[in-house]
Amino acid sequence: MKEQQKDRSCEARVEKHMQGRLDDLRALWAAFLQGRADDALGSLNEYALCFDYVAPGIFDGQTEGYFRYQISYGGPSDEFRFFVNPDFTVHRIEYWFLDWFDGAHRVLQDEPAQGLRNLWDWLSPAGMVLSAYRQAQR
């Protein structure tokens, strides 16, 4: 029984879920650059559930604020977190997979990180970054 629980942990599932989301975002980005939607996934601006700012201290032990690109919610949920400098440049991107009192994450590096930086660069000039930050400050 203990082995079954370990297999079901977020740590055991995070890589597969992250790769699936990264594949989706690659396909959506490629379609976006061609000015179209992806046949299976739709359009880039419809993919995530929300984009918001989570201020420091919202969760116990959370010392750093981040921007959340939330893809799913409930059990399980997953999201990309953008940690930024005071000038809103990204210094770290993490993928989080969460499921009922359990969670696991990975820090993105190399090509996956660049793909998410492209997404950030698309969101920022559109005013979404500043809007999300201001909304959280109210």
The main sheet orders its strands as 1-2-3-4-5
Hey, roughly how much beta strand do the residues contain? 15-25%
Question: Radius of gyration over alpha carbons?
Answer: 16 Å
Question: How would you state the average pLDDT, rounded?
Answer: 92
Biggest pleated-sheet summary: 5 strands, antiparallel
| Low-pLDDT windows of residues | 1-5
How many domain regions?
1
Overall shape: it is globular
Number of strands: 5
N/C terminus separation: 47 Å
Structural class, from helix and strand content?
alpha+beta
In sequence order, what are the helices and strands, one letter per element? Answer: HHEEEEEHH
Number of helices: 4
* Helicity range: 25-40%
Overview of the molecule:
The protein has 138 residues and is α+β, with helices and mostly antiparallel strands. It has a 5-stranded antiparallel sheet with strand order 1-2-3-4-5. It is globular, with a radius of gyration of 16 Å. The protein has helices at residues 2-7, 10-33, 110-123, 128-137, and strands spanning 50-54, 66-72, 77-84, 90-98, 103-107. The longest helix is centred in the N-terminal third of the chain and has 24 residues, at 10-33. It is 39% helix and 25% strand. The chain has one domain (2-137). It has 4 helices and 5 strands.
